[in-house]
Design a protein that fits this description.
355 residues; Creatine Kinase, Chain A, domain 2; two-stranded antiparallel ribbon; 13 helices; creatine kinase activity; transferase; nucleotide-binding; ATP-binding; ATP-guanido_PTrfase
Length: 355
């Protein structure tokens, strides 16, 4: 398969679009946790109950349209091999938990892959909507609409005082997790990020790596999300997060301006060295590739590097993950073989862009 065709088929259509403040905010996500009233929660569900939930939700949503979204195609996790599951995780379409622990899990996806409805993860339903750039309100509107659409057909586990009931107490209430993926290289380079993260945590938000809980930040990409789901409305949760994100955008822009004014030559040297590594390496590990891609993306945003789209970071941060590398190679690879394949794919992708 040619690289052009592989990229076309591998990257979710929504990822190829720009959104507001997309020079710093890569994506916005809203996720709603819901459970069906008449079924045991997934953590203690029997095989029969788990299968019944999948069947019920397939009947409810499978092949259906919601406005301009859909039809929704269902993928059963027990029919996918480990590599296929890993690719879905790398595309943020399912969680690592669903891929690794759910025997009778499934996911409903629309064609653009901007909507992902996970079944039998920690809860019966995880409704997830993804948008490019800073579009939290738009993602919430879509998620809430989908939530109402599904609730017309099923009964949710709901308590008048506590709100939506979930497997984990931290999700009780709205069941809402709002998050943004941000590229913050200047705050990392200037070491301001070390004081900013504790301040964000004190505001009831949490900073994680690119794949959420338990993962480290790669390529200076951080996921910022809410911790509280009880005691606030969905709109207030989203607005609080949006306010912090807007402040982070301003701080990152100020840090970038400061670097250009005080250390322009050093910054240019760092960016072009990273570009050279990506353009000429024959072996490159994931961590080094992520850092170099971050530097090049910064160079594109600052106008140092021309003729290359900023979406290259979004693409290559995913395409160079282990699952995608092996899918592109159409075979299982050892860690060293993945490092070789990663370097080759990056070189080929840069040549396509330059061409």
């Amino acid at each position: 398969m040619s690289l052009e065709r592989f990229i076309s088929e591998a990257i979710s259509p929504w990822m190829k679009e720009d959104g507001p403040d997309s020079d710093i905010v890569l994506s916005s996500r809203i996720r709603l946790a819901r459970n069906l009233e008449q079924y045991t929660f997934p953590s203690v569900a029997s095989e029969e109950d788990a299968k019944a939930v999948v069947h019920k939700l397939e009947q409810t949503c499978g092949g259906q349209l919601y406005g301009d979204y859909g039809p929704f195609e269902i993928l059963y996790l027990n029919t996918l091999n480990p590599l296929e599951k890993r690719v879905l995780v790398e595309k943020h379409l399912i969680s690592p938990n669903l891929a690794e622990e759910s025997t009778y899990g499934a996911v409903l996806l629309n064609k653009e892959e901007s909507v992902s409805i996970m079944i039998n993860e920690e809860d019966h339903l995880r409704i997830q909507c993804l948008f490019p750039g800073l579009q939290l309100s738009e993602a919430l509107t879509l998620a809430s609409g989908l939530d109402d659409w599904i609730e017309e057909k099923v009964d949710y586990a709901f308590d008048e005082e506590r709100g939506y009931l979930t497997s984990c107490p931290t999700n009780v209430g709205t069941g809402l997790r709002a998050s943004v993926m941000m590229h913050l290289p200047a705050l990392v380079i200037t070491k301001q990020i070390s004081r900013i993260i504790p301040a964000i945590n004190q505001l009831g938000l949490v900073v994680r790596g690119i794949y959420g809980e338990g993962t480290e930040a790669q390529g200076n990409v951080f996921q910022i999300s809410n911790q509280m789901t009880l005691g606030k409305s969905e709109e207030d949760i989203v607005e609080d997060l949006r306010g912090v994100v807007l402040q982070l955008i301003q701080q990152e822009k100020a840090a970038r301006k400061g670097l250009q004014e005080a250390l322009r030559i050093q910054l240019e040297d760092r960016i072009y060295r990273s570009y050279g590594v990506l353009e000429h390496s024959r072996i490159i590990q994931s961590k080094e590739a992520s850092q170099c891609l971050s530097d090049v993306r910064l160079g594109i945003d600052l106008g140092f590097i021309e003729g290359i789209s900023r979406s290259i970071l979004n693409e290559l941060m995913i395409l160079t993950q282990p699952g995608f590398l092996q899918q592109y190679a159409n075979e299982r690879l050892t860690p060293e073989e993945r490092d070789i394949r990663r370097a080759t794919l990056i070189r080929e992708r840069l040549k396509l862009e330059e061409g």
